[in-house]
Amino acid sequence: MQVSGAQGPSVTSYAYKASLIGSAHRFELTDAGLSWHIAGRSGLWRYDEISAVRLSFRPVSMQQHRFRADLSHTGGGRVRILSTSWQTAALMAPQDNGFRDFIIELHARMAQAGSRAELTAGLGRKTYAAVLAFLAVLTVAMTGLLIRALIIGEFAGALFIIGFAALFAWQVGGFVRRNQPHSYSFDHVPKALLP
Questions:
Q1: Are 75 and 65 in contact (CB under 8 A)?
Q2: How many other CB atoms are found less than 10 A from the CB of residue 124?
Q3: Residue 31 carries which DSSP code?
Q4: Which residues cross the membrane (predicted)?
């Protein structure tokens, strides 16, 4: 993130590469609004024209600590801002400080402009319910396998199931906890969804 404009208008910027191929996605917070440049397209959204902001935790195999902000415009447009950037074919680099500072500054400027945007955190309610239902079914199935392994005396299998369940709970537990759907306000941006 870069901040400029000690004498002139203040501009805060953030950029990331969403893929190895293609140009970087660039965003600037200017006095006029959010300026964005994505894949040959660009636009300027006034802060009061941003209709919704959704923050979420979205890990991927190459980067287990990745955050995302989805912004919607009153005219129907939508942009996505990620906290990681592709560096090489095998390296996706985190940009934690720049992403966090940019998102906090965006919220401050939206609040100052009198925005009435819908601020939500986590997954959508239906998606979150589906995730919880899937985890409940998986828990029942794993418990059944564990009981069966103990009944027939397969203690090595039971230890494997317990180990797998612990690893799975550790990996998925953070995702489920952080992405619990809720609303927030401009002055209380959820820290769990910022790096």
A1: no
A2: 13
A3: S
A4: 128-151, 157-176
* The total number of structural domains that make up the chain: 2
Cα distance between residue 77 and residue 74, in whole Å: 7
Question: What residues contact residue 138 under an 8 Å CB cut-off, 6+ apart?
Answer: none
Report the CATH number at residue 19: 2.30.29.30
CA-to-CA separations, 69 to 4, 82, 90, 166, in angstroms, rounded: 23, 7, 24, 30
For residue 175, name the pLDDT band (cuts at 50, 70, 90): confident
Which segments of the chain are extended strands (E)?
2-4, 11-16, 25-29, 34-38, 41-45, 50-57, 67-73, 78-82, 84-88, 91-94, 118-121, 182-183
117 in the same domain as 34: yes
- Predicted model pTM: 0.81
Domain that holds residue 168: 125-176
Residues 50-60: pLDDT tens digits? 999 999 998 87
Q: Which two tokens stand for residue 177?
A: 């906890």
Helices (H), 54-154: 96-112, 125-151
The chain-wide mean pLDDT, for the chain, equals: 88
